[in-house]
Design a protein that fits this description.
The protein is an alpha/beta fold. The protein has 2 domains: 1-148, serine acetyltransferase, domain 1 (Orthogonal Bundle), CATH 1.10.3130; 168-270, Hexapeptide repeat proteins (UDP N-Acetylglucosamine Acyltransferase, domain 1). The protein contains 9 helices and 15 strands. The chain has helices at 14-30, 35-43, 48-60, 67-80, 82-98, 106-111, 113-129, 133-147, 258-261; strands at residues 150-151, 156-157, 162-163, 170-171, 176-177, 182-183, 188-190, 202-203, 208-209, 214-216, 220-221, 226-227, 232-233, 241-244, 249-253. The strands form 3 sheets. The protein has a 6-stranded mixed beta sheet with strand order 3-6-9-12-14-15. It has a 5-stranded parallel beta sheet with strand order 1-4-7-10-13. It has a 4-stranded parallel beta sheet with strand order 2-5-8-11, with no helix packed on it. β14 (241-244) and β15 form a beta hairpin. The longest helix has 17 residues, at 14-30. The chain is globular and about 50 Å long. The protein starts with 13 loop residues before the first helix and ends in a 9-residue tail after the last helix. Coenzyme A (COA) binds at residues 170, 172, 188, 190-192, 216, 232, 234, 246-247. Coenzyme A binds at residues 170, 172, 188, 190-192, 216, 232, 234, 246-247.
Length: 270
């Protein structure tokens, strides 16, 4: 595809990037048929930011906006907003530390569409914040087509987010997701009613949102809450509660940060 881009101002976290390069070298040696893939995605890049621009451009490539042009836009966003790069690194660590199916840093970066959708959203959000709404909406549309993940470009996400499986995630325009949140698939952070303005949830730090949960309206989900699979949350939830059901009710207390432990059971002291 395109040549490598070096992103200015990158603060490299050598440990993750070095680990990813070592993983890619080992993977290329172990599966020679994929050697050129690991070379083009990881080994020929001088930085993780450059590799991310290439990777996102590859997965979003389309005749309407080719990988070469996409790579330039993504690199521009990362140069302008260092938070994209900082949060991307925290996201990789989040997957590595929380997802039992992820035993390499390389895994979410290359293979997990939740990671690709989230990083694409970070770029789309920057475009939206710059008034480049048409291109931001194009990113949202491509991500939705490719990954079945639909996040409005205006939605705000913190760092250290993990979206396991990701299929069916829908996040509305005025949603806010704080740092260190974990989502499973088919979650909706949706609006309620027919108004405009603030109408979507705020998800506090360290929350774990179970598969299929629907959180509707301008509700506030406290720090460290655990939301059970299939729940319908229509009202505020206090910190460190576990909620379940349709509509959801408090069924217990949650661990300090269920998003970290990904303990998908009622806590033992409950
Ligand atoms: C069903 C719905 C239209 C009712 O909205 P509402 O008029 O504001 O009603 P309320 O939130 O006051 O709820 C009324 C009652 O129905 C219950 N309820 C609300 N939505 C429910 C649902 N989807 N399933 C089961 N019960 C529901 C509430 O718990 C409440 O019960 P209660 O009277 O015993 O306390 C709304 O909750 C809903 O589901 N809208 C769809 C929104 C959506 O899909 N948004 C996603 C956008 S991406």
């Amino acid at each position: 595809m395109t040549e490598e881009l070096t992103i200015d101002g990158e603060t490299e976290q050598r440990d993750i990037w070095s680990a990813m390069r070592a993983e890619a070298s080992a993977a290329a040696a172990g599966e020679p048929v994929l050697a050129s893939y690991f070379h083009s995605t990881i080994l020929r890049h001088k930085s993780l930011d450059s590799a991310l621009a290439y990777q996102l451009a590859s997965v979003l490539d389309h005749t309407a906006l080719t990988a070469t042009a996409l790579q330039e836009v993504i690199a521009e966003a990362m140069r302008a907003d260092p938070n994209i790069s900082r949060c991307m690194r925290a996201d990789i660590s989040a997957w590595y530390e929380r997802d039992p199916a992820c035993d390499q840093y390389l895994t979410p970066f290359l293979y997990f569409k939740g990671f690709h959708a989230l990083q694409s959203h970070r770029v789309a959000h920057w475009l939206w914040s710059q008034g480049r709404r048409t291109l931001a909406l194009y990113f949202q549309s491509r991500v939705s087509e490719q990954f079945a993940v639909d996040i409005h470009p205006a939605a705000r996400f913190g760092c250290g987010i993990m979206i396991d499986h990701a299929t069916g995630l829908v996040v509305g325009e005025t949603s806010v997701v704080e740092d260190d949140v974990s989502f499973l698939h088919s979650v909706t952070l949706g609006g309620s009613g027919s108004g405009t303005g603030h109408r979507h949830p705020k998800i506090g730090r360290g929350v774990m949102v179970g598969a299929g949960a629907k959180v509707l309206g301008p509700v506030s989900i406290g720090t460290g809450v655990k939301i059970a699979a299939g729940s319908l949350v229509l009202s505020d939830v206090p910190p460190h509660a576990t909620v379940a059901g349709v509509p959801a009710r408090i069924v217990g207390k949650s661990a300090a940060a269920p998003a970290y432990t990904m303990d998908q059971t009622l806590d033992s002291e409950e």
